[in-house]
Request: fold
Amino acid sequence: MSAPAPVLIGDMTWTDYVARLKSDPVIILPVGSLEQHGPHSPLATDTIIPIEIGKAVAARIGALVAPAIAYGYKSMPRTGGGNHFPGTTSLDGDTLTRLTRDILTEFARHGARRVLVLDSHYENEMFLIEGIDLALRDLRAWGVEGLKIMKARYFEFVSEATLSKVFPDGFPGWPLEHAGVMTTSVLLHLRPHLIHMDRVPNQPPIHYPPYDVFPVDPRSGTQTGILASAAAATAEKGALLFQEFVEGIAKAATAEFALANRGA
Ligand code: MN
Reply:
């Protein structure tokens, strides 16, 4: 019996990769960060989650998963605690834009025409969009047609019903869900050995004013790195969320890329 075909591009030989590209698979590019996620969660929280979602989506839709962009744009106080924390290792915006642009044009050069950029770090968004836009502009100028790119953030795929189950006392909003109940629960499901529930800070949600001040004063804002407590995180909530992310993204990719529906 032969082993299942690899889903990770990095595990494939170039000849197997070329052969797989002939069937026009979606390539999933996970994008995350190396960023503090409180004293209880790993620095790679934002990278582990889209890689695992990407692998699960790939298994459903016959996609390939590219190596992740494992660094992101600078952590902002109101969405990630701030860039001053040790361990938070960030890129300048134009570096992330260039990385995205280069990787996408390389996929297109190989013959890929369907790419799903799966982002998970709040601050990345516009730099990824810029990289996508510039890659498409480059390709048009080079006469390369037909590349379609879908960009998604997994947390936008949660239903109201699941939100009310995961946050029975009220949803604090995605910007504050940094190392909070959502990411901590998902990692309790995916990588329980990387989560230290005994170190979850017991603190109320941070209330930031509706503006930013630069340079950032490290003495203001969160001192623990979390913005809202993860004390209510559980592996069961994580399993529910993960399932919903995977199903929602697989369904959206199937529709956007007009893939034959393989069923659940
Ligand atoms: Mn982040």
User: Anything to note?
Assistant: The two ends are 24 Å apart (CA to CA). Residues 8 and 65 are 5 Å apart (CA to CA). The chain has one domain: 9-262.
